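A sample copied in:

***
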Amino acid sequence: MKILIVDDEQPIRETLEMVMLGKGYEVVTAGDGLSAIYMFDREQPDLVILDIRLPEMDGIQVLQQLKQKQKETPVIIMTAYHDMESTIAAMKKGAYEYIRKPIDADELEIVVDKVAHNLDLTHRLEELITEISRDYKPDNIVGKSRAMQQIYKTIAMVSDNRATVLIQGESGTGKELIAKAIHYNSAFRKAPFVPINCSALVETLLESELFGHEKGAFTGAVSRKKGKIEQARDGTILLDEIGEISSALQVKLLRFLQEKEFERVGGEERLTSSARIIAATNRDLARMLEEKQFREDLYFRLKVVEIRVPPLRNRKEDILPLVDHLLNKINTELHKRVTRIPRDVMDALIHYQWPGNVRELENVLTRAVVLSKGSVLLPDSLPDLFERQSKHKESAKIKSLAQVEREQVIKALAHTGWNQGQACELLEITRPTLRKKIRKYNLRP
């Protein structure tokens, strides 16, 4: 950690420099305000220890300029007892902490070590966020189909702003993955990403979870609780299964989207939040509008940008790259090396309809890798899949009664050259019945 020490008294500067060098920190010094600003720009220190009384430009003015340049850099103020009014002003303007003169070396070390610890945590958090951001790059969402390529473009566009997004698609298609890609590629990636499953909580608990509550707002509310919107700050709230929320909660959510204001349950204080809302659902909200189950004004507020995620059965060309991606991930997690897939196994994976979408594919592959004894994904490790495929093929061979009847009527008419009398004799039915069948199946000579 690099420390800038600013004091107009050289003995104090030298003493503090010696103490900090003894702790293993890198130190630069300045004797007045202008020199401090120059050294700050040149050295980019992690911490500033600043005397409040300086010639020409006092510590408060220096603090203000430093904060304008780099708001996040902590500044520790050195102050005498009679400067407490100025010290309070400095704390209000963003000083991290203050220490009294004459300086107690132990007190100073405790405060500086605390700053160093917080900086270490911040750097680790930034590294973690950077790593997560790499994981959720749009090109890490696997798929080469035209529909998925369009989704990548949309993610890139909405990541540059804070527009509300509505993601629609069947369960297991990766809606939360898309929401995370939007958040972690935005300028607000360091703020929290907060998912809420709207179908997992009853209405009263969901409202409290979202907006928070005051003490005594309901039975069990023993203290004030901040809601997810308040906790998210500048981040992102993912409202999963948005189609499940009640009409009353739809009204409150609409108000928040319109005004960016809300109240805790049982409270009267108006609070604000700039959190972005991303909503996701596997239900058809357009049909819910027609059935008066979802508010039209809320629907249009949510779908400022709409992303429709196609089911896996409608993008078969994505299965091969998905299998490759998921196998790499599963092998890493389970410490296995299953890398080879025979043609019949891959054909089964491609031709299966995947009602559970990508989630089901990952579960099937995980179980197969666990059961595999070598590097080859054998049919024996996918018994359920092949059994389902077999049942699907068998059911495909069995025709409905309507299909059989239609085919028999067509055959009889074709055999008799559309002589309806002879066709009735072959089918052993009356002419009115035959005419009904011809109209029913929309048959033409």
User: Anything to note?
Assistant: The radius of gyration is 34 Å. The mean pLDDT is 87. The chain is about 50% helix and 15% strand. Residues 105-135 form the longest helix (31 residues).
